[in-house]
């Protein structure tokens, strides 16, 4: 005979009605959840931001630069592939054991993998073991991140009042942008302090190692949290799921909701998010040959200006609904991404050769250094801000929408899986797929359409995905909001 689980005092339900949870308590929850999530996004982003620099270290310096970059982006993308599996595993744990302890575990896995990455010897020292070890660490990070977002979003939402859920959960949406900004700032400062040569040799390890301090601080903050009041109440009443995976994906009603969330919302949100921020950053440096500091300033300023809009659109969705805001951002991303990238390219100006191709002391070819000498940073920042604006429209209300879509007993699992397939797989592969398409287009016959537009050809992938998602979302997404999620 089953027995009703006994709850520790700290895990006892705070209130049977989540509208009665104190505002101070909600801000404590948001702060603890957000700090940890910022750190996890920081850990994930520094690898992608440094792909071009650490590629020769982990794959050897003899390969072609474009092949090494593609190899690093593939390893980076591998972390996204396993995110849905992390969502399955940690979602099940979160729905059966609790939200709090699950994202404590994901934080430790993510942070530990990042620190070890900063300690890996080079390819020249340990050979093929270097990229293989990094690949394993990326897979562990992807698994951990797969359990992180669902836990944080669910935890905050289950504390928030029903009529202000979009507003309060929108602060979780800021964390991804905050993590990217933090990673860029740490990389730029470290690069300036160590110098270019030292940074390429060993300085790139510093941002990875610094995450250890951030993880310890975040773990301490999260450790002091209590369990979600809604989950604690469900657990006390014996209403938690004994098989979250079956209840999420075998139950036809819930399975249909998972599919709508994936193909009608998160798939498009993922490609818009990574195109507007990560791909734009890579495009400015690798294609337009903008200086790292210039590209970093552009992206950081654009994101800082756009950050309040995550909260604005989250709060607006409480009043007018989630669907119209998310779908408007989706359509804008599909229609205007290519023109905006074309404008960024135009304002970056011509590329000049600042040093010729040479051969180093070891007889290895050193390619010529190209640089955009006079980019219009103000205009590029404005265009990048518009790209990020589309992200805030799609991403700001999405946590509230996903939380309200699923019942408490399977919310962690049902929310996490479509989010991480859409955001992680479809969105996470934007840099790799877009770069591969652009490299392919550049090899086409001179004068052909693809060859002439090779620098922008890769954008066909995110634009097509966003457009498909918009159509499906308009047909099948219901505009529910402010529901009593305990019911």
Main sheet: strand order: 1-4
Largest sheet: 2 strands, antiparallel
Strand tally: 4
User: Between the first and last Cα atoms, what is the distance in angstroms?
Assistant: 27 Å
Helix-strand pattern, N to C? HHHHHHHHHHHHHHHEEEEHHHHHHH
Quaternary structure type: single chain
Summarize model confidence as the mean pLDDT.
81
Rg from Cα: 23 Å
Tally the helices: what do you get?
Answer: 22
Strand content: under 5%
The low-confidence parts are: 1-18
Shape call: globular
Helix content class: over 70%
Determine the structural class based on helices, strands and strand pairing.
Answer: mainly alpha
In short:
With 487 residues, the chain is an all-alpha fold.
What does this structure look like?
It contains 22 helices and 4 strands. It has 487 residues and is an all-alpha fold. It has a two-stranded antiparallel ribbon with strand order 1-4. Strands 2-3 form a two-stranded antiparallel sheet. A hairpin with a 5-residue loop joins strand 2 and strand 3. The longest helix is centred in the middle third of the chain and has 36 residues, at 252-287. The protein starts with 22 loop residues before the first helix and ends in an 11-residue tail after the last helix. Mean pLDDT is 81; it is low at 1-18.
